Amino acid sequence: MCENMDILSQNNDTRDEVIFQDDALGSFGQMGEDFDDINSFMDLSRKPSRIQDCNKIMSEPSERLVQGAQMAQAVLGAKLLSAIQEQARDDLPSKVSAEYIAEVCFSSYARPGLEFKESSLVNIGMMIALNRTPELRIHIAAALNLGISEEKIVETCRHAMIYCGVPAGREALAVASDIFAKVRGTTKEERAKMS
């Protein structure tokens, strides 16, 4: 586990929390069980890391899996990935899901057309629209890792409010506020004293 961690999630079900920390941003928390499926997708050296499908075993990671792992490291940062790997489940459903996420989702970051920062802001908007708060926390933290300003993240949340509704936008802004404060190292009590 990483040192100096804090909880991001408001999720009360902490059965399988994922704890992570990023190089540039300091500690920024734990995720709920919604992230069980991404827990092992970057650890290509983990044994056994092959998917078994009707007696067929993949002997080597695909080129897209390797590319996706590289893109994930660039987007999320090394310490976040390391912490996710430490919390990884070692079962077939988790591996299938994790490999899919790397091969399809993260390898898409290598496509031309959108910069990492642009993709990150799109992801934030989509997580708001889909009401996927645990994933939103990851994507806001990743956006900060990529150097996206707090102001741009807040404006993205505000803009999503137009199409997703005020409750979704307010929740996203509250999530962003919590993550920003944790990155700065302030607690809820300290923030309450400031207001």
Automatic annotation (TrEMBL):
Domain Carboxymuconolactone decarboxylase-like residues, every copy: 98-177
Cross-referenced Gene3D superfamilies: AhpD-like (1.20.1290.10)
Source lineage: Eukaryota, Fungi, Dikarya, Ascomycota, Pezizomycotina
Pfam families assigned to the protein according to its UniProt record, in alphabetical order: CMD
Protein name as it appears in the record: 4-carboxymuconolactone decarboxylase
Originating organism: Colletotrichum cuscutae
Domain of life: Eukaryota
Gene Ontology MF, one: peroxiredoxin activity
